[in-house]
Amino acid sequence: MTSYPNSTSQRIAWIEGIRVLAAIAFVPYHAQLLFTNYAFTPQPTGIASNFTSLIEASSRLGALSGLSIPLWFGYQFVDVFVLISGFSLVLSLRSRSIDPLQFIRQRFFRILWPFWTVAWLSYPVLWAIGTATNSYIPDRWHIFAGASFPLLFEYASDLLLPTSGPWWSIPLILSFAIVFPFLCYLQARWGDRNLLIMSVIVTIVYRLLGVFAFGGHPTYVAIDTPSSWLPFVSFLAKLSTFVVGMVVARAYQAGRGVIFWPVGRALRYGIGFYVVGFICQFYWAGWIVADLLLPIGLLLCTMVVFRVLAQNRTLAAAMIWLGAHSYSYFLIHNFVVDRTTHLIIGVSVTRFWLLLPVMILGTLVLAILADAITPLIKRVVAAIGRDLDYVLSKTKPRSRIWQPQVGDPVRYRGEAGWAILKVEQLLDDQSHYLCQIWDGHRTMWQSEDELALDRNFPEDDRPPAQSNLAPNPFDPKYPFESGE
């Protein structure tokens, strides 16, 4: 196990502001691609040639074509998400040691429950819209693959792409959840500097092979190569970016590092990294380092802006609230963009610009609804699993040791300092309870199986915590934590 010092905050307002900006940036980016039939994606033909293609593609968007130019590069925020993920995961550890298996399990459910909510709710809607308008509906095989993911796990995401193109990144997100505990171990053993150097070497070597040996190209490029984008969907292609986030987080916890840089220095380095990375993305050799430089430059520049905005308490609270919905926003946005573009906008430039803000706000509304429904879906699935287990089980449940009540001090998996905020009954026949617990920093829902009444013994004299009921494989052990 690896222990980390306590962080001052699990959610930093300006980080959440950047996360929100990154999620929103995908809406106009994908909208422009669909509206113009992919008129512009970076090509390895040099910056002059790409600039000509960019101007030509933007001219299709009418009088506001100048506004569309930066929107063509919304894909750059994918790597910003990766960097922020590494940063936020380290902060979320706080002072706790990391148990690799427990972390991976909890992280998987934190990623998959919102995904399942969006998938399970989206397929009936997609079918209804497709049937009513005679438009695209994913076939039954891909609906099953998406609804049961990761039962049919496939790293290239070919089974998810027919539902939503941006879902290619879900296996990437899961892969970082798997390697994070190992990276934490290396960070503690090697130190920040050595881990960062090794991750950069591994990433550059892998991307070098990806371009010149495997015949691949970055995910945001539309060009025919022997292995297409497949070499670049692996976490190895973005490993150093993730590690940069981890290293920055450790420095932040120690009260040093780029987070504390003055505005002038942050902007100088940020603009420098971004300009070099921006130029590199238009060359074969540049693809090796472009995605390493761009997220660092973007994060430094946006950090300056959002740190100023976060000084306003209202804006800071809004950033934190919106940031909590950014993942569901990302999962949903392409449904809104695709159906709106094909069924309403068509070829009308005027409708495109009028409906672009509607798509942005509409996606937010749907993301909020999805996040509100996710806890209910968790409980329904847990109840179904418990009912099935109760009917099929050969062993009877143990007699109840104590009745969970609001306000009871409890231990969660042997850890003291928790209290029950809310109790809900799941099964009438077993009177099984689901408890919302709180430790002063975070809240989560847990089965009573995981809790033991804390009888306020002195710390050194506490008896071993006893589980209330027999372990059950259908317990929804998901953390509703405030951090990433």
Question: What does this protein look like?
Answer:
The protein is an alpha+beta fold. It is globular, with a radius of gyration of 24 Å. It is 56% helix and 7% strand. Helix 7 packs across helix 8 (192-212). The model is unreliable at 1-10 and 457-484 (pLDDT under 50). It folds into two domains: 2-371, no CATH class; 409-461, no CATH class. The protein has a five-stranded antiparallel sheet, covered by helices on one side. The longest helix is centred in the last third of the chain and has 44 residues, at 349-392.
End-to-end distance, in Å? 20 Å
Strand order of the largest sheet: 6-5-4-3-7
Which geometry do the CA atoms define? globular
Order of helices and strands: EHHHHEHHHHHHHHHHEEEEE
What's the number of extended β-strand segments?
A: 7
What labels would you give this structure?
7 strands; disordered C terminus; 56% helix; five-stranded antiparallel sheet; alpha+beta; two-stranded antiparallel sheet; 484 residues
Gist of the model:
With 484 residues, the chain is of the alpha+beta class.
List the helices and strands and how they pair.
Blueprint: E1 2-3, H1 13-35, H2 47-58, H3 65-68, H4 77-93, E2 97-98, H5 100-133, H6 140-148, H7 170-190, H8 192-212, H9 239-253, H10 263-280, H11 290-309, H12 313-323, H13 326-345, H14 349-392, E3 409-412, E4 415-427, E5 432-438, E6 443-447, E7 451-453
Antiparallel strand pairs: 1-2, 3-4, 3-7, 4-5, 5-6
